[in-house]
Amino acid sequence: MVRCFTFKTFVFFAIFHLSIWYSNLILAQDFTSKKFGIQTVKSNIIYGIATNYLGSSDTLKLDLYKPSGNDNIQRPLIVLNHGGAWVGGDKTESGIVAMAKEFAQRGYVVASVNYRLGTHKANWALTPFQKDVNAGFHAVYIADSAEIFRANYRAMHDLKGAIRFLKARHALDSTCSEAVFVGGESAGGFNALNVAFLDLNSEKPASCDSISDVPMPQSNLQDNYPGGKVTLAQLKRPNLGSVEGSLNLNSYNAKVKGVINMFGAFLSEAVSNNWVQGSDTPLVYLFHQSCDGIVPCKAAIILSPLSVNCNLGYTPFHYKYPIAYGSCALKTYFSSGSPKIKLLKTEIFPCDDIIFPLADCIRFAQNGSYHYTINIPQRCDSIAKFIAATTVKSVKNCNNSASIKKMNKNQPLISPNPNTGTFKISGIDSHRIQQISITDVLGRTVNFEWKNSDTLTISDPFNHNLVFVSITSNNQTQVNRIILINEAR
């Protein structure tokens, strides 16, 4: 008897043989050696639009670095973000670009992400640095400490949205949505730590709720606002929402396997509220120079080393900044806290603190305030070796939402698959379905009609090659399915 070679049979055999080939490929790659070239960078990919600190909309973009000559279809992903005190910086910053290229050559796909910038300025600085001294210092005179918490929180939202966006397009980028790491320099290190550990709404900083308006900033600091002025309406500080934000809420989460902190820190509330909890604590890499004048390595007020010693008679600029726990303090906290970070690597480079303000301030100025990465290729080699075991394990056990899984009798089945945009859901009573969402490979919402109890029709099926269907039942169980769109009617 001749049996029909169905699509399901084809998929079964394809996955079977692919899994054998892929397992051999992973065993041959350790993600530590620079074996690959770098593809042409994909620049300015839009991953979302979000409201900034002035109530306007920012278009959020990222750049992608991919290894060339690499056949891995489930490559690990690192999401990096720049520093700049939440008021400046860009995804093309040299340190971040250098790290992206280092990891791409080791077989990673790397995203360099822009995020929302901006903090409101002071009404308390009697004699701030003048423009003829250093106009850039105007940006560091913030209204109050809440501005730092809120800027950090917005940046975290953007990074989480970027991670979900990138996980959703894993098929397009040949990445594994389980093998994801996040990292950053300076403010970007703060942001990365938040992504990794601020995951419960009970941990949300109080200053990120709706709080009082910012007092009108003094006129000589308003050059930091668009057009050199700010309105009362722009000084509102509304509730910033849940810890997950609202960007790209698809069927993927923003969880990461590890965090790479380059001379960033935890804000004090992260320690007092014990953000480090749960069974899925990621690995942590910490880098710092011990005398960093911008983000102190120990627990101290941000910018205080320079502000206290080097303000040249002008109003010190650290007064409203919160205490932060730099890598020196985090090394102790992560290794002795409850729970401890099981996989922790710290590289602290010693340097001399400011002792004689005038002479030492000149030394700090000549050495970039010791706020930079020492020998980026060497640091990336150290990081790659540290995260290698986790990377290999995660990629080897990769379980993208796109993977075809064996379903039991209690899980919904979608048929036919592939289809022309109309399909049925079986295996679950319609009254148990609480929500259905459909997204494309970029995490964008796909419109559909739910015609009756079990049949759905996508509104514009031929604009999509595949979509992801997320079904949530009334017991909060969520099941994700991939749907292939067959263009032939």
Map the helices and strands:
Elements: H1 7-28, E1 37-38, E2 42-51, E3 57-65, E4 67-68, E5 75-81, H2 94-104, E6 109-113, H3 131-134, H4 146-168, H5 170-173, E7 175-185, H6 187-197, E8 258-262, E9 266-267, H7 268-272, E10 283-289, E11 299-301, H8 304-309, E12 323-325, H9 327-336, E13 344-349, H10 357-366, H11 376-396, E14 413-415, E15 422-426, E16 433-439, E17 448-450, E18 455-458, E19 466-473, E20 478-484
Helix pairs in contact: 2-11, 4-6
Describe what this molecule looks like in 3D.
By secondary structure, this protein is α/β, with parallel strands linked by helices. It has two domains: 370 residues, Rossmann fold, CATH 3.40.50.1820; 72 residues, Immunoglobulins (Immunoglobulin-like), CATH 2.60.40.10. Helix content is 26%, strand content 22%. The chain is built from eleven helices and 20 strands. The protein has an eight-stranded mixed beta sheet, with helices on both faces. Strands 14-15-18-17 form a four-stranded antiparallel beta sheet, with no helix packed on it. Strands 9-12-11 form a three-stranded antiparallel beta sheet. Strand 17 and strand 18 form a beta hairpin. The longest helix is centred in the first third of the chain and has 23 residues. It starts with 6 loop residues before the first helix and ends in a 5-residue tail after the last strand. The N terminus is likely disordered.
